[in-house]
Each structure stands twice: as C-alpha cells, then as structure tokens.
Amino acid sequence: MFTIISALVVLFCSPIVYFILKRVLKIKKTGNAIFVFVMIIFAIAIRYYLFDFQSGDYGSFLNKWYEFIKTNGGYKALSHNFSDYNPPYLYLLTLFSYLPVGSLYAVKSISVAFDFVAAFFVFKLVERKYKNETVSVFSFATVLFAPTVIFNGSYWGQSDIIYSAFLLASIYFLSKGKNALSFIMYGLSISFKLQAIFLFPIYIILFLKKKFSFAGFFIIPAIFFLSVLPSVIIGRPWMDAFSIYLFQVKNYSSLALNAPTVYQWFSQGDFLTFSRIGLLFSAAAVCAFVFLVYKKKGEINNNHIVKISFVLLSVIPFFLPRMHERYFFPADVFSIVYAYYFPRYFFIPIGMQIISFLSYGPFLFGSSPNFKVLSFGMLAIIIIVLADLFLDLYPKKRDVII
Fold first, then answer.
1. By CB atoms within 10 Å of each CB, which of 198, 242, 367, 398 scores lowest?
2. Where would I find the H helices in 131-237?
3. 20-27 long-range CB contacts below 8 Å, 24 or more apart?
4. What is the pLDDT of residue 66?
5. 141 and 35 in contact (C-beta within 8 Å)?
C-alpha cells in the first residue's frame, strides 16, 4: 500500500516539481536538482500521512467555517460574519469549497502549499548571501523538514505559514531594494494575520535611514483594503469586515497561552495589571530598539536586515501579553535564515524548534512541558541574538550612541 501511494504521489508531483526546479528555483546542477526533487517528494509524503489528524481547532472552528461556506452558496457565504479570521484566508477556503475535497484536506492543503512558498523565499534569501546553489538547496530542504513547519499546517491545520511566507517575501524584496514589492508582500501578510505587525518596526528603521519615502507606507493599508473589499462587494457590512482584528485582541484573557514568554514566570499575576504593564513595556522597548538601530552610523545592509527581522519576531512576542505558542512561528522560520547567514549560530534554529515544538505539546499531544524552563531557553536565544546584533552595529567603543 505504501508503495502504491508513494508512486501516485511521485506521478502527480513530478510536473510540479520539474516546473519548480527549472523555472522557479532555476537549479542548474543535476545533483542538486535530484536532491530537491527527492526532498519535495518526501516532504509531501510526510505531510500526507499527517493529514487525517483532527485538532480541536479544526473541529471547533475550521471545519465549521468550511461547511458554512459550502452550505451557504460558496462565495455568497462571504457576506456573513461566521469567522474571526480576516477575509483573505476565507477566500482560499471558498476556492477549495468548489473542489471535490473534504474540509480537513482542504484546510491542510492550503497551508502545505505555502510551506513550499516559504521554502522558496528562504532559498532566494540564502542565494543572495552566498550565490551558492548547494547551500541554497539545503536551506530549502531545511524549511520543509523543520518540525514546527510540518506540524503547524499538515497536522494541526493552522495557517501561520501563509503570513510567514509573505513576511519572508517582504524581507527578500527589501534586501533587493524592491521596496514597493516589499510593501505589497507585507500588506498581504498583515491581511492574513495581525501578528505580522511584529515585523513592522524594520520599515520604520529603514524609513528613518532614508531607504524609501513615507509614501511607501500607504501601500500597506491599500493592500489591506483591497484584500477585504471583495467580501464587502459580496455584501458584508463595511464595519464588520474591517474590524475583525479589533475583536481578535479581546478574545483571550490569559497572560500566556502555552507560549514561552516572560509571563510564564508570573502566571499568578493579575491579568489586567500585567497586561497593561506588558503592553507599555513592549511599546517602550520597541521604540528604544528602533532608536538604537537608527543611530547606527552607516548603511543597514542585508546581514543587518536578517538580524533585525529575527530579533523583532522573537523579542516582541516574548514580552507581549496574550501570546499563543504559534505566535513564535515566523521566528521559527526566520531563525533558519539567520543560521544560514551566520553559521556559527547553527544552534539557534535548533533551539527555536525544540522550544516551539514542546510548546505545541499541551494542545496537540496532551503533554505538560515546563514552560518556565522553555521561557528561559527563549530568553537565552534572545540575549544571544540581541548581543550579536548590537556588537555588529556598534563594534567599537568610540561608536557612541548619542
């Protein structure tokens, strides 16, 4: 049975893989092409065997949304308020509702497709660093076989890879100086998940460094507006369609929801007090971070962009209250880019994967990890990457900040 299924997977995927290798990744070396082909087949096979698991989120939310779409006229269902996700994700569910695919496989197929999009942009980012096809190929495979990437979509059925893929695309185009495309990709990212806001300070830094004009920022709300507009045209009220994120932030009343954050050490603290202090502290810390990076003399190069991106995606959710374990997912993926750019920190993505995967345990596997220890591990990673960044920005004692 395994042989038959594997053969069918290979047969179905061969044309797609060939297109990716020759037209998208533009792999020239035969050995590298064979390696990528084999990795893609194994990656698809692994995900396929995880597809039948039904998480609590799928049963309580995703399945109900998909069935609501199917039973309410397909695209016509988008005129109703039946989900707390922003419309772009619902558009994808709606497209699959017209296919002969069950809700479980539809939900997971969407996420798995973006696993490969994310791997592609990691490939392109690493390619910019080394101009070495072999290194880039390995980075592509690393993303596909990262535990949290595999389990987030194909097992859990979550969609964090979608906005993370667009975040990777935004940084890739930013590194190439294609600022308009970067803003478009970032706008798409934040249209899928509000957590994309964690990366926004890098745009403020580069604006202060005069990398682009203020007009570029208007692209982000324009993309967000366009992403929501189809649901409004179909019949959803304006305020209803554009206020989803406002309601999302009020849904949870825990300082940390299985997330390895600073609040694991204050789990008995008053929610309202610690939430307010946490928000104010996080805002102040981000402002201080932006100022210190801005004061760095000289250009912000691609190495700095990778470091800043990873720092923002790991530090901000660590100090913000009401964080879920999955809010570190973009940091999981960006840590891979970080390690390929700076190989001496190869242990960073390993640590991120271990911490994040163990954090998934309570919801997916019923395990009970020690979150205080996991939070110390996350803090250790944050200290290392912050020190690395600022030693890079200010390598000499005479480089004063003010």
1. 398
2. 133-144, 147-150, 160-175, 179-192, 201-208, 219-234
3. 20/116, 20/120, 24/120, 25/120, 25/123, 25/140, 27/133, 27/137
4. 96
5. yes
Q: Does residue 183 contact residue 216 with C-beta atoms inside 8 Å?
A: yes
What are 357's two structure tokens? 């995967």
Q: Cβ–Cβ contacts within 10 Å for residue 306, how many? A: 23
| Size of the chain in residues | 402
Q: Are 146 and 357 in contact (CB under 8 A)?
A: no
Q: Supply φ then ψ for residue 178, to 5 degrees.
A: -90, 75
Query: What does the alpha-carbon distance between residue 168 and residue 186 come to, in Å, rounded to a whole number?
Result: 9
**Structural element, H or E, at residue 335:** helix 329-341
**What one-letter code names the amino acid at 120?**
F
Sign of CA dihedral 83, 47, 165, 56: positive
Tokens of 96: 């699959």
What rounded mean pLDDT belongs to the chain? 91
3-class SS string, 108-135? HHHHHHHHHHHHHHHHHHHHHHHCCHHH
The pLDDT value given to residue 269 = 76
Residue 284 token pair: 């102040």
- Kindly state the percentage of the chain with pLDDT values over 70: 91
Confidence class for position 244, pLDDT limits 50, 70, 90: confident
Q: Report residue 60's pLDDT band, with 50, 70 and 90 as the boundaries.
A: very high
For 10, other C-beta atoms within 10 Å of its C-beta total 16
Rg, C-alpha atoms of the chain: 21
Amino acid at 264: Q
Q: What is the pLDDT of residues 159-194, one digit of tens each?
A: 999 999 999 999 999 999 999 999 999 999 999 999
Tokens coding 18 = 């060939």
**Structure confidence at residue 272 (pLDDT):** 86
